[in-house]
Amino acid sequence: MKTIKQPPGRWTTITLCSLLATGCGYQQYQAHPIAAAQGHVSLRAHDTGDSGFLAYLQAEGHHNLPGEWGWQELMLCTLYFHPDLDVARTQLGRAMASITTAAQRPNPGISMGAGRRNEPEVPEVYSLSFNIPIETAGKRQARIDMATNLSESARLNIAQTTWNLRYRLLSSWIEFNAAHQNLVLLQQEAKLREEIVTMLTLRLQAGMISSVELSNAKLQWQKTEQAVVEEQGRTDVLKTQLASNAGLPLNKFDQLQLRLDTADQLLNMQHDTAMINTLNPATQDAALLNRVDIRAGLASYAASEARVRLEIARQYPDISLAPAYNYEEGFHIWSLGINSLLHILHRNQGQIAEAIALRETEAAQFEALQARVIASMDSARSLYRSALQVLEQARHVYEAQQSQTEQAKLRFEHGFADRLELWTYQLENLLAKQRLISAEYQIQRAAAALEDSMQLPLENLESMPANTQHHTPQPHQEITS
């Protein structure tokens, strides 16, 4: 019987066309070089008059640029310009891309061969085989779960970065205002001490006082003058920090009209002492659940749990189907093979142990984070309560000193006191005012620290549930929900 030869030319053509088709749609490399000066130029380009920033203000409900800038208006600049948020966003983009990577199935393989034999009747030999990998034991889903939880942690990192920037901006705003007010009061104090020195000099010339009294007054005046110079330098440094936290260069920040505190506003501010009593354990637990780093810790733990599942699934080998076609001696030969690894030397024990250790580490870090947060809340609450007491005492001293100064003014107007006595009482009144304003800013610092410990503005405490059960989140709860 004569063998019918059917050279598979059509198979070769189909295969080559398939390979050409798979070559379509590839991405091309595009270089994006970065220069050291690029970041410098980018920072200098930040401007509140930028069209993109104006569009952002309109999207946030502000139709025009603010006439005066407080810390809340500057926060809009921070959210738009600060590079730390760009870093957090790119990290989220990388984490989201990892989900795509985790969801990818392994690509099949193809192998082709052609040969020639010495026999003239059957000169050609062709072979074509495929390799189709199949993952087993839910490895792909475990990878997706791990990448999804890591992306959730990266998403929460944006919120954490935003809150950190808010706290940094608020803190620098408080410090800048405090330095500005302290500078104004120090200048007033220096002027009063200068006038007192002038009056004491005249009295010394008249033989009414000793030189020791004048020397002491001059020394206090010189110290105050030195304090004015130092506070002026500190104010400039704090202004630079404030501009940096707002994401603006200093030359553009100097163009903004800031809404700074005034002494009258500070003296008339009232604080609700009952607010501190609302920070009961239930409210603290609700705030604890609200913290971004707590939720990020749960997401990280869930990712480590998914990794344990993945490593355990890798105990079971994947398989590969290998269908093949051969043309030899005029015969068409079809075959099907199955390939797999033999887990004889090890069964992924090392990787499983590493994943379990990582999960235990994440759980321990979560517990430590909770402990730090609770301790921070308790500490911030105590500091706020202490600051309230200091403020109350400073207010009583200032009010008493004001009364004495008014009496000295009346005695001076009726001729029962001289000018030096009046100026001395005014100086003591100014020093009491300094202590009161310093206590007021200490309240603001304590309130900012209390907000940071809860990651919640104090004005939102009223919306917190009042009867929340005493409860702290556990890592496994995120997994089972």
Automatic annotation (TrEMBL):
Top-level taxon: Bacteria
Family: Belongs to the outer membrane factor (OMF) (TC 1.B.17) family.
Full protein name: TolC family protein
Organism: Methylobacillus methanolivorans
